[in-house]
Design goal:
Blueprint (H helix, E strand, L loop, with lengths): L23 E10 L2 E11 L4 E5 L6 H8 L7 E6 L2 E2 L5 H6 L2 E4 L11 H8 L8 H11 L1 H5 L10 H13 L5 E5 L7 H16 L3 E6 L2 H7 L2 E6 L2 E6 L1 H6 L3 H5 L12
Parallel strand pairs: 3-8, 3-9, 6-7, 7-8
Antiparallel strand pairs: 1-2, 1-4, 4-5, 9-10
Helix pairs in contact: 3-6
The chain binds adenosine-5'-triphosphate (ATP).
């Protein structure tokens, strides 16, 4: 299998954003599932074109944060704004129309649908006439997806499914691409290709929020990094600052510590 690590779909053409606002502004976000509080008042900003990595142990709240920004999980308290516009009360397709796309943990490929049908699902929020040519561009970048366009996506390898999931998300022409554990379960050589693809998407100015257990991979991609533990950020800074921080190992492995900012 040859995975070509590039995807050059055109610039986002989603709804205009308020000028002068961060792409995403998360303020004092609280997420609860019944009696479980997954996020305890998280603040985060992602600016246009910026890549932010979030690392931390299982159960830290990383998926909950991405799900809330994607509009899948609703906040118990606090707020999320996209380009200055509050997310509260916005229907899921409208979150995508504002330029937010999520590649979920486990990829959520529909195994019984064909590769082509999976890709079309990524473009359902679009009304422009360029979806067909964008899909052809995906097939040009990933010939294996083109060859198997009419086969069930469940027959693809894990790496091919991850590429399909990323391509599907890109078909909504997002400003912000969020990825939950994109390296999970993949061989190192395939992870290389996935991260080369992410670098190429990033180079086109698409902002990224990447949740990873594999901190080294995500840090190599990111402008900024955050360590999450027990529903809060315990370290934030540049990837270099975080990786060299004396408490990084403890924070990364989820040893309880008080919230603090890394030295700047
Ligand atoms: P992982 O890497 O294991 O996915 P995570 O850092 O992404 O972990 P979350 O999945 O956001 O963390 O989970 C945060 C907390 O919320 C955990 O205690 C988890 O058990 C709980 N949780 C997450 N989703 C639900 C749910 N749907 N119902 C109940 N509790 C949940």
């Amino acid at each position: 299998m040859t995975l070509q690590p590039s995807l050059t779909l055109r610039s986002p053409e989603t709804a205009p954003l308020g000028q002068g606002y961060p792409l995403v502004a998360v303020r004092s976000l609280v997420i609860r599932y019944g009696s479980i509080t997954a996020l305890h008042g998280v603040d985060l900003e992602v600016n246009a074109g910026e890549a932010v990595a979030i690392v931390g142990p299982n159960g830290a709240g990383k998926t909950s944060l991405l799900s809330a920004i994607a509009g899948i999980v609703r906040p118990a308290d606090g707020s999320i704004a996209i380009g200055g516009e509050p997310l509260a009360g916005i229907a899921l397709p409208d979150v995508v129309r504002r330029g937010v796309a999520l590649v979920p943990e486990g990829r959520n490929i529909f195994g019984s649908l064909t590769v082509l049908e999976n890709l079309r699902l990524g473009a359902t929020v679009r009304s422009d006439g360029a979806v067909g040519s964008d899909i052809e561009e995906v097939f040009a970048s990933f010939p294996i997806l083109g060859q198997r366009r009419n086969q069930p996506a469940g027959q693809l390898s894990g790496g091919e499914q991850q590429m399909l999931a990323i391509a599907r998300a890109m078909l909504s022409r997002p400003r912000l691409l969020m990825l939950d554990e994109p390296s999970l379960g993949l061989a190192p050589a395939i992870v290389d290709r996935v991260y080369e693809l992410l670098q190429s998407i990033r180079a086109r100015g698409v902002a990224m929020l990447v949740v990873e257990q594999n901190a080294a991979r995500a840090f190599a991609l990111a402008d900024r990094a955050c360590v999450m533990s027990h529903g809060a950020f315990t370290l934030t800074g540049t990837p270099d600052e975080i990786a060299r921080h004396e408490r990084f190992d403890a924070a990364y492995f989820g040893v309880a510590m008080s919230a603090e900012r890394s030295p700047t």
